[in-house]
Design brief:
26 helices; about 0% strand; 3 domains; single chain; about 650 residues; Serine Threonine Protein Phosphatase 5, Tetratricopeptide repeat; mainly alpha
């Protein structure tokens, strides 16, 4: 009976982890708070069950690797505790802790458990990836989304489609899909039966590669080519004279034809309903986004490096880049939630030590994995080993994360850490010291308890604040404020206090509005929106000096993202008759006005669809009144912005509606 219970608990743990991956992949790619909380719950469950009395253990975790992961978790916690943007980032703390615990659990599976889990994760990735491709094809063909996104979208918001995240997932998954399709097939003399069999097996791989092409991710395609070269190199060095050149070339050709056919077939179906992106324009950087995606990435990298220099120990805090980067911004809307580089993100947000820990964890495992694969002699092996598959998949994801960052998607990050753990399990551990079970148990169980307690307390607040947001969306201000007041104590408040302040301001309750934004500043002093809100409150209270002071703070943090900040400064100055100060700053304001005007004409980052347009027109008209000699310039700027924004909005409204929602 005890043996049966043990087996049942092992089965339960495996299926919980596998189910978690499937659910997060299929549900928006795991980009939701629910996914993070469920991830932590499953990680806590498997950790606690694996340490129950009488549990038979598999291999241990190398001591240096274990301490590196634990230190990364603790460093993330310390970074969050000293963060100046604490209203965000708690989800990254919980996610980091949960993924580290799952990483340990996979490594500790015994030999039989490893084999079972490996077989099932490979099958699940293969099947789930094809399901997501099927869903993605429906969305791509029948919705006005011009890039393939798989299941990486939120249908509630027209901007929440993530093609680059989808491409990153496929870079991690396609080697496993290939392994899943061909692991039981043996290369033999080509005949009619063999060709049919190859076509059937290659079809699933070709579909996945075709869906990668449909994402129109330039970075993803470059990394994919690099993965092919790495795979060829590792396979060739492992097989040498037994490397089946002609058969591999034939296989690559067949898969390439299928992938290309899927690409053109999907686009031909979409072409009858919606516009299709031009491959030529995408490659030559002449598409709507132009070269901005390249130039802005370079800016983000430099800015992240500068931020890391300012706070090298613990960084600015998890998820702080979106708030602290705008002060360094020099182009309209050239901002981002992250640094578009996983190592620079760690350095800027969690400190240099955290970056080095992550680099050591991933780098040491991959290097040892490559060394192990090259040292292992393989005779009469028709395929490259599963170790090579893991190396190619993990390397592809890490390289893509040098130009983008999408590991906040649980569907991506959980698969990454599982595959990394499976690679650790394959590495020869002769002579390598493992962590003592007693120490590991004490530390990990303590960590589980603390993370669960935090998640439980914050989870209650999240439910309450969510009720407030739904009430606000319905226009029920009184009910929304009631729920918001009950959720005031949450750490992970995000924009809760700004919402409270906005509602109080609309009801002309200025004191409460100011108190609410003060609550926000206790957690985050880096957000231009908060300072602008204070400016709006003080302007409504006719406290014009305080309004100018607050607007100036907002201007320092976010002048390139919200032109209404500049409008607020000018309005408060005009009321106080500060014409001399206005004249002094006129060149600065005019330069900013022209930059926003050009951005609206080019619709940079869809600015023509934002409220920036109305604020811009109002500001331009003000300047036309203040400076009659230059009035034609301002009138032209306002007219161009108005004309182009109307055209863009009419184009969006005239776009055929989606057939799915």
């Amino acid at each position: 009976m005890q043996f049966k219970r043990r087996i049942n608990s092992q089965v339960l743990m495996r299926w919980c982890v596998l189910g978690l991956f499937a659910v997060t992949l299929l549900w928006r790619g795991g980009k939701s708070l629910e996914s993070t909380w469920i991830l932590l719950g499953i990680a806590a469950l498997v950790t606690i069950l694996s340490y129950r009395k009488g549990k038979k253990r598999g291999q241990g975790v190398p001591v240096l690797l274990w301490w590196s992961v634990i230190l990364l978790i603790l460093w993330t916690v310390a970074s969050y505790m000293q963060s100046t943007t604490q209203n965000y980032g708690l989800d990254e703390v919980l996610r980091t802790g949960a993924l580290g615990l799952l990483f340990f659990w996979v490594i500790r599976l015994d030999a039989r458990g490893q084999d079972l889990f490996t077989n099932r994760i490979v099958r699940l990735v293969g099947a789930a990836t094809l399901v997501t491709c099927g869903i993605g094809l429906l969305v791509y063909i029948f919705q006005p989304v011009d890039r393939f996104v798989g299941t990486f979208f939120d249908h509630r918001f027209h901007t929440d489609y993530w093609p680059n995240a989808w491409a990153e997932y496929l870079l991690l998954a396609w080697p496993l899909v290939y392994y899943w399709s061909f692991r039981t097939w043996v290369f033999r003399k080509m005949n009619t039966i063999t060709v049919v069999e190859v076509l059937c097996r290659a079809f699933s791989v070709g579909v996945v590669i075709g869906c990668l092409l449909l994402s129109y991710s330039r970075g993803g395609l470059i990394v994919f080519v690099g993965q092919l070269f790495l795979w060829f190199l590792l396979y060739y060095l492992g097989a040498r004279d037994e490397f089946p050149r002609k058969k591999i070339a034939t296989l690559v050709l067949i898969i390439g034809v299928i992938a290309t056919s899927i690409f053109f077939w999907a686009n031909s179906l979409r072409y009858d309903l919606y516009e299709v992106q031009s491959v030529t324009q995408k490659v030559t950087l002449t598409s709507a986004e132009g070269a901005s995606s390249v130039t802005e990435r370079v800016q983000f990298w430099a800015q992240a490096a500068s931020l890391a220099k300012e706070k090298p120990l613990f960084g600015w805090g998890p998820y702080s880049f979106r708030f602290v980067q705008p002060r360094m911004q020099n182009e309209v809307l050239a901002t981002s939630d992250h640094a578009h580089n996983v190592f620079l993100k760690f350095a800027a947000e969690r400190g240099i030590v955290a970056m080095l820990l992550f680099a050591f964890i991933t780098g040491s495992v991959l290097l040892k994995g490559i060394k192990s694969e090259l040292e292992t002699k393989r005779k009469n092996k028709p395929h490259s080993s599963f170790g090579v598959v893991l190396i190619v998949a993990l390397t592809g994801l890490l390289v893509h994360n040098l130009i983008d960052y999408n590991m906040q998607f649980v569907g991506i990050s959980i698969l990454f850490w599982i595959l990394l753990a499976l690679l650790v399990s394959r590495i020869q551990l002769r002579g390598e010291k493992v962590i003592r079970p007693r120490i590991a148990k004490i530390v990990e169980i303590t960590l589980v308890v603390l993370l669960l307690l935090t998640a439980f307390l914050e989870g209650g607040y999240l439910v309450i604040s969510s009720l407030g947001r739904h009430a606000e969306a319905r226009g029920n201000t009184e009910i929304a404020l009631k729920w918001y007041e009950r959720a005031k104590g949450e750490w992970f408040s995000r924009d809760l206090h700004l919402s409270r302040s906005k509602l109080y301001l609309e009801n002309e309750q200025y004191t409460k509005s100011l108190e609410s934004v003060g609550d926000y500043l206790e957690h985050n002093v880096e957000d231009a929106r908060a300072w602008k809100q204070i400016g709006d409150i003080e302007l409504a209270r006719r406290n014009y000096e305080a309004a100018v002071e607050a607007y100036e703070k907002a201007f320092d943090f976010g002048r390139f993202n919200d032109i209404s900040i500049t409008r607020g400064i000018l309005q408060a100055m005009l009321i106080q008759n500060q014409y001399e100060e206005i004249n002094k700053r006129h060149p600065e304001f005019e330069n900013l006005l022209q930059r926003f005007g050009n951005a609206i004409v080019l619709n940079t980052h869809f600015i023509a669809l934002s409220p920036n347009v109305e604020s811009f027109i109002e500001l331009a008209e003000r300047f036309a009144q203040l400076y009659p000699d230059n009035a034609p310039l301002y009138i032209v700027l306002a007219a161009r912005a108005d004309h182009n924004s109307k055209l863009e909005r009419e184009r969006i409204e005239a776009r055929p509606p989606g057939f799915l929602w």
